[in-house]
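The data are passed on as follows:
___
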Amino acid sequence: MKGPLAFLAVAAMLALAIVAPQYITVKYYVQLILLALIWTIMAHGQNIIQGMTGYVSITQAGLMGVGAYASTLLSIRLGWPVWASMAVAPFITALFSILVGYPSLRVKGHYFAIVTLAFNMVIFTVLLNFTTLTRGEAGIPNIKRPESLFGLVDFDDRVAYYYLVLAVAVVMTLLTWLLMRSSIGRILRAIRQNENLASACGVAVWRYKLFAFVASAFYAGAAGALYAHYIGFINPETFGVAQSLDAILAVILGGTGTLFGPVLGAFAVVFLPEYLRIADSFRLIVYGLLLVVATIFMPRGALHVFERAWDFAVRRLGGTK
């Protein structure tokens, strides 16, 4: 699906997201959509390093934790305005990711995944044991929402915060689109296709890989800050390896290397476990089987399946084969 039809589809999805809180009477579903939008931001970051560059990082949730704790500690311990702490948190996460990415990107393939897995475990352990700062497993409660804008918008209201998260998700999606269309995006895809050939052509491969990793961390930091100030409570459990694997699954399920695949994947990762609660005893088994089946039969992601179905429908309606 390309051209005007793609534009209309995106406009329709955006319009639906804007009006959704006004028509959904069950506030719990508004919360799920809000969380899915936060996961969309994190999945876009995962897609930059995984989908565009071809390196599977298992530390995205750990980096999200860095952003969440950075924003929380700046606002609670140092008394920064919440807007300022939320704005700075992604940059702190990006700077921290240089320390992680510098040694990790010296290795390739499975070794890179293993190193990043180890870093996620290190971040989790530090958050758990550095109790004087993070309060360990007890977590940090009473995290405030952003201050009111000119007394007109109160972000303590869930719907107002929903629109804030939606705006950030849209901006992050636009940034991803610009990155994909830029020369840097083309170089990242060249690295994914054949890193040795790209290097032989004179591309500073390691520098671009580090850029992709830092960019993915920036997205994770933004998602973490939004999450912390929405939920109002954080502890290390939210930022473990399992959540990093969910970020990888969101990209795989939606469509690796695509713009809207991670959006679909993020919604799937948030909504599927909730709907499977009707079979609570078998929830994780059913969830795991669905993921295995989807990975086997949709290797290019759900977005590719939708695009093929749309193209088929257009051909049938147009009377062409």
In short: The mean pLDDT is 88. The radius of gyration is 20 Å. The CA atoms of residues 281 and 287 lie 11 Å apart.
